[in-house]
């Protein structure tokens, strides 16, 4: 099946970009990471798998990300959670499998708790719940900038510095889910790199242990990094998604 695309209008006038493959359910829904977009290698690998196997698949960009409208600096966990729920409500029917990468693992968990009756399973790649509190190290000069301006330009190994707002940090605390219990009963598969510099494997394991679900498989890829986008990593991701869809 070919992939279609469009924009989902939000009540405040912003628009979320999406792409969809029609096919058999459950619908696989991709939830990307912080400052990532739906054109990344993992999202693309799943699109190709969906087309080849006749599976329903939806990917989208959050507010302020990728092809969607909005100012990234104004984004919050509340807003991105609402984006995910809007996609579920308006672009999917029936059961869904949520596939969340990094921050997307947090958003997927929050969405699963909001609509548990629709969740077939979750597949999480280097999940980063509570990252605004537990994983984001802010140096003294960052705290000074946040206090003075409400925003800190955080250096990045992946490109230009990017804005971290005080509102993002304050809002993130509202949605903390660790150490649990995390009220998700559906099957969960977690893929985690042992050499991930952004999400320590112990953090992802804490999520696995906090889940109420008894059907949880935690896979440590010892030499894996944060992105887990090597060919063998993409094969593991597709295999995990195919397993929970079966």
UniProtKB/TrEMBL annotation:
Leading EC class: hydrolase
Catalysis: reaction(s): S-hexadecanoyl-L-cysteinyl-[protein] + H2O = L-cysteinyl-[protein] + hexadecanoate + H(+); mycophenolic acid O-acyl-beta-D-glucuronide + H2O = mycophenolate + D-glucuronate + H(+)
InterPro entries per UniProt: AB_hydrolase_1, AB_hydrolase_fold, ABHD10_acyl-thioesterase, Hydrolase_4
Function: Acts as an acyl-protein thioesterase that hydrolyzes fatty acids from acylated residues in proteins. Regulates the mitochondrial S-depalmitoylation of the nucleophilic active site residue of peroxiredoxin-5/PRDX5, a key antioxidant protein, therefore modulating mitochondrial antioxidant ability. Also catalyzes the deglucuronidation of mycophenolic acid acyl-glucuronide, an active metabolite of the immunosuppressant drug mycophenolate.
Pfam families: Hydrolase_4 (PF12146)
Protein name in UniProt: Palmitoyl-protein thioesterase ABHD10, mitochondrial
One example GO MF annotation: mycophenolic acid acyl-glucuronide esterase activity
Ranges for domain Serine aminopeptidase S33: 42-140
SUPFAM superfamilies for this protein: alpha/beta-Hydrolases (SSF53474)
EC assignment: 3.1.1.93, 3.1.2.22
């Amino acid at each position: 099946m070919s992939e279609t695309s469009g924009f989902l209008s939000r009540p405040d006038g912003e628009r979320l970009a999406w792409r969809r493959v029609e096919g058999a359910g459950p619908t696989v829904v991709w939830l990307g990471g912080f400052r990532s977009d739906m054109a990344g290698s993992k999202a693309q690998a799943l699109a190709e798998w969906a087309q080849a196997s006749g599976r329903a698949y939806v990917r989208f960009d959050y507010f302020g990300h990728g092809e969607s409208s909005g100012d990234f600096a104004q984004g919050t966990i509340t807003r991105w959670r609402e984006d995910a729920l809007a996609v579920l409500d308006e672009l999917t029917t029936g059961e869904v499998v949520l596939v969340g990468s990094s921050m997307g693992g947090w958003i997927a968990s929050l969405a699963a708790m909001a609509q548990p009756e629709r969740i077939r399973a979750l597949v999480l790649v280097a999940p980063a719940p509570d990252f605004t509190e537990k994983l984001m190290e802010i140096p003294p000069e960052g705290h000074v900038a946040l206090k003075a301006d409400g925003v800190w330009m955080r250096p990045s190994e992946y490109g230009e510095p990017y804005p971290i707002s005080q509102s993002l940090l304050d809002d993130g605390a509202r949605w903390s889910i660790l150490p649990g219990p995390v009220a998700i009963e559906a099957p969960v598969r977690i893929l985690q790199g042992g050499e991930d510099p952004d999400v320590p494997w112990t953090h992802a394991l804490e999520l696995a242990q906090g889940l109420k679900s008894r059907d949880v498989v935690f896979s440590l890829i010892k030499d894996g990094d944060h992105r887990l986008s090597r060919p063998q990593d993409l094969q593991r991701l597709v295999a995990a998604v195919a397993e929970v869809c079966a």
